[in-house]
């Protein structure tokens, strides 16, 4: 490989340099721009490249240009270093601003992370004469990419303390992370660390609930009744499905009992309160850190104004605007997008219905007996594939809607994008789960009057032991696949890509001659060979963008939603989340430190819109878990049976379990002598696998066997369900309010620290003012 050092002033003067690999520390540059070398000086790309570099030079930026020659085409690497006066202006404006509050930029030298943030702003707000800025030039191919350089020593420090698998159970060095990546990334790891820590008690209780279900696995009268029943059940689908034995689903009944038992209620209440406790503890933790970092009073608008004036003295801030027309258009488009997502959820319903019918006529008896379960599993896998596709679609649509809104700044755009992207993702992931939880088996009708989609496909039914297992299967498959596959792609893909690229660079470097002089002894700093080796090593890393931290956040927020909203159906969800997060923290750390280009160290004092999103999830967790226990599970019907219809209702039975006969009591009977019932089934569907022709079959519902009207028991159970949901939500909300009251957002220690800090600064100003007044009096006396 050959390099050419292109003199900044000579234009066409070129000197060929052979690339060596001396052990020297490359000279520090704030930013690197990469573009193709254009030999035709009349080309539009060449002119725009030159114009942008000239604009930077006009701002007194130092630009070093090094050319890399290879068979894929020559590339120009522009090393950019900002003048010191830019940082002095920044520090001065911080000093006179309202949000300074002892900012670290005023103490000592400006950190490279701060320099990078300032230079990043300047580069993205530098315009050429055609009115184009860097982002637009990159879209037009004028520049290929841009990145800032990793610091080798800091990389090694972070790797030894944090970004390696052996540090998985060490305390995170948040201060070091903040110094290198900025407050935004540091707060993400503070949040993720606290979330992971608080998952430990949640996961422990989830395991206890699971073990509680296993403890009564063999002795449960409900399981025994299903496994020993000789009950003939009605066909589950049209034409192809036959009548079936309830005892064929013995395994399904056992699995249902693991997740649908009395312990689930207490666990759901605990998790609803846990979400509030976590949010309050997070806010306290955030307050402690931002106070320690002296960014409590930091203001994003003031930061933008300071950077704007540092970049251009003629800068004028963009005003806040609102257009009712644009807002209406965005609202309509969001509604249409949500309708599309819900439509996809309905398509999954049709798929499961069709799959149940096809599996029921298969050659395998096991497949026939568990056709509905296999259909749910296949639907869950298809749901996950839909999530992968729709995630990309949702991102594009959300960005398009932000463009239509014409948001004022990047921070405003990020907030708007966060709300839209989370809303789309939430509906994409949870629309199908909401159907399974609250509609499956409740709108399917009954023999003689089944509900059908477009009059063709009969809707699914729940197992006689309840619908909670269907929800569990759907959640478990989506959650496990999403976490495992996401982690594989997040780590393996950039690792393999980096290995291949670095191998090519190493082969080219080894083939070149070593530098003739030791760069570490050169007064002017390292040679161009050394610079380019470092630039290439950073260039070969995976690219990052302004939404890199957003991508990590939304992944964890979606997981948090799974862990809290439908946790009543999946008590082991916190355990899976805990295992994933222990890996996720190190995985993200290794990615950011070693596998990805350096992130811009953005300053902030909160996690933005995610805080409000967490509040919404906490409220949804209370509502959803109350509905899951009251509506989805069979907890309330079992309770009503135990105290109103069962053998213990009168208080006389002593040698019989109180739930004996529940399954039979919860089933209704359809007689084939009824013409409407007979029309719903084909003759061959009414023949058992033993060749017997049945005269009646059972189905899960509370209806009489004369006119198939709902019985009084149905209304009693329905009333009890709604009463439980209201009672559950009010009790949990009371506990949430108590938890929020006992755990204020800001600790007293932080409040007192801020008070003392303000007092100290005001006292210093007063002393300074008094001294100045005394000096003025002395000068006046001397002159007199």
TrEMBL record:
Domain Anoctamin transmembrane: 177-755
An example molecular function term from Gene Ontology annotations: chloride channel activity
Annotated Gene Ontology cellular component terms: plasma membrane
Residue ranges annotated for the Anoctamin dimerisation domain, each copy included: 113-174
Keywords attached to this entry: Cell membrane, Glycoprotein, Membrane, Transmembrane, Transmembrane helix
Topology of the protein relative to the lipid bilayer: Multi-pass membrane protein
Location in the cell: Cell membrane; Membrane
Family: Belongs to the anoctamin family.
UniProt protein name: Anoctamin
Pfam families listed in its UniProt record: Anoct_dimer, Anoctamin
Stretches that traverse the bilayer: 188-212, 264-282, 328-351, 371-390, 422-441, 556-579, 613-633, 714-743
Xref: InterPro entries: Anoct_dimer, Anoctamin, Anoctamin_TM
PANTHER family cross-referenced by the UniProt entry: ANOCTAMIN, ANOCTAMIN-9
Gene encoding the protein: ANO9
